[in-house]
Design goal:
Elements lengths: L1 E8 L22 H28 L5 E4 L1 H10 L1 H12 L4 E2 L14 H15 L9 E3 L7 H9 L4 E5 L2 H4 L7 E4 L6 E5 L7 E9 L32 E2 L15 H4 L2 H16 L6 H9 L3 H6 L5 H23 L1
Parallel strand pairs: 1-2, 1-8, 2-3, 4-5, 5-7, 6-9
Antiparallel strand pairs: 6-7
Helix pairs in contact: 1-3, 2-3, 8-11
Keywords: Carbohydrate metabolism
Family: Belongs to the glycosyl hydrolase 57 family.
Protein name: Glycoside hydrolase family 57 N-terminal domain-containing protein
Amino acid sequence: MDNYQIIHFHHPLKLKNLSFLEISKKAKHIDKEASVDAFNLQYQDNIQPRLRTLLKMADTQRNPLVFFSISFLEQLESTDPDMLLELQENVNKEKISLIGSCAYHSFSYLCSHELFKEEAMLHKKLLKKFFQPSPEIFINTACLFDDEIANIVQQLGYNSIVATANTWHLAGKHSGQLYRANTTDDFNILLANGDDKEGFQISLINGYGSAYASNQIDDQIKNDVKINQLFISTSGKEQPVYAVSMPLTSPSWQYKIPDYTNNPLQKALLQQIADLFKNKGNIKDPEDLKVLMLLCQPDHLMSINQFSKDNGYNKFISSMNILTDLSLKYNN
């Protein structure tokens, strides 16, 4: 049996606490200084050693699977360009396989399907700045999946998607099998957290900055069959359909989706982002689109969680001020 692991490296970006008095004052929305400090504080002891493990796996031909968020790559380029160069060399030599996802590892899909499409396209586009190969397989933040996600991702040119294995939807089938998405055209699905002893398993790992429960990179895993070749061995065989009408997330993710979306402040924020993006379809400034995506980051949405009421309310007010600022910009 092949054991695959997708290792996630992300750098959450912090947003500034924007007051009402700063609206329409051309204030910056991203707190770059705090974001840089947070990365550099963790780099030497936590991030760099795990990147070294990744390079060791590449050197021993273990073909690790990796998701890099754009914010992680941009910060790494600034903090340790030599490390980035080593990663680039190994990716370009196909010793490390890239996995596509959302540019800023956000829950944009829970806010707006169109914003999610923009962010997924942006990840694929900006990866070209760093690497020669393009990812062929997609995994959403928290392995969030439903039929519409598969439809959107297929339109973006991916060959397959990693989805969450759900016992009820599998109806007794092994989750380690290969599936087809419930889309008009054939589209392949690989299920994470599989349990088929005669098939394969895909584990989801927090390299840095993600919320997967496991941060244990198994540097002994070696895949004789590259993950994007799994379907080649089954060509000509009809795969069962895996239909999911409502979004599912990985049980490996530390928190439940309601923790990010269900309190009134979170709902109001997500609705306001969706309305702004829908009604201001002419928002073409990349920085403004980036801010909308960053407002959907798991870390940011969690900061508005009801379990931290005072701080959560302040974060909510600041976020709404940012959206008001953007809205007024496009009304002028």
